Amino acid sequence: MENDKYSNFAELIYWSYSNLAMAHAGLERNHLKYNKYHYIIRAKLFKGLKEGTMNIRSIIDDEKIKLKTGQICNYCGSHEKLSIDHMIPRYHIKTDSAENLIYACQICNSSKGKKDLFEWMHSKNEFLPIFIIRRYIKLVYYHAEENNLLALSMQDLKKMTLPYKPEFIPISYPPPAILKLYAKNKNE
After folding, report:
1. Are 102 and 110 in contact (CB under 8 A)?
2. Cα 117 from Cα 164, distance rounded (Å)
3. C-alpha torsion sign, points 145, 147, 148, 149
4. How many whole angstroms separate alpha carbon 145 and alpha carbon 10?
5. What is the number of other CB atoms lying within 10 angstroms of the CB of residue 175?
6. pLDDT tens digits for 83-129?
7. Which stretches of the chain score pLDDT less than 70?
8. Which of 62, 75, 60 is nearest to 120 (CA)?
């Protein structure tokens, strides 16, 4: 599905988040590819999110993982020349909230620059760790919810200047064998 095929921004986010849950389930079970079990997870979550019987989980779980991974680049796993990166560039949202901050090495931080995280991921032609994608989708969702953007169509969003680029939100994920849950220290 292309991003324009969703009735509103919420539906796009829900579909991406549901696919992410499917990918996460495949990763946790060390599956090489998706099967019926994974598609059921995606379908049930997507339906629940759309109907309001399920919610996007709190970012608290992601904060726990951030603390667990320690001082490594959350994109590539390097532990050298670390700095704090704003997942959504600071100049867009004018805040230093902890939810938006992660460690990044100088190489990744410079490469990403002021690009949207998913735009950068797309330009690198590789998927970032699931933990980072999930965190970013939640940040986008929270921003859209706070600014009453969830009910807007993709066409309406294209006319707006946003701190992220909805057209780069992933709507499908590669097989779990290719993905990683979070960046691991390159020295381990």
Report:
1. no
2. 8
3. negative
4. 9
5. 12
6. 999 888 876 666 678 888 999 999 999 999 888 999 999 999 989 99
7. 1-4, 91-95, 185-188
8. 75
What one-letter code names the amino acid at 76? Answer: C
Q: Do 14 and 49 form a contact (C-beta atoms < 8 A)?
A: yes
C-alpha count within 13 angstroms, C-beta hemisphere, residue 48: 14
Q: At what angle do helices 130-146 and 117-124 cross, to 10 degrees?
A: 150
Q: Kindly provide the b/e burial profile for residues 36-70, where b requires at least 16 CB atoms within 10 angstroms of the residue's own CB.
A: eebeebbeebbeebeeeebebeebeebeebbeebe
Measure the CA–CA gap between 66 and 101, rounded to whole angstroms: 10
- What one-letter code names the amino acid at 13? I
Distance CA 154, CA 51 (A): 20
Q: How far apart are CA 87 and CA 70, in angstroms?
A: 17
pTM of the predicted model as reported, rounded to 2 decimal places: 0.91
**Is 139:88 a contact under the CB 8 Å cutoff?**
yes
Q: Are the C-beta atoms of 75 and 51 separated by less than 8 Å?
A: no
Task: Determine how many CB atoms are found less than 10 A away from the CB of residue 92.
Answer: 15
Beta bridge partners of 102: 85
- What pLDDT, on the 0 to 100 scale, is given for residue 3? 57
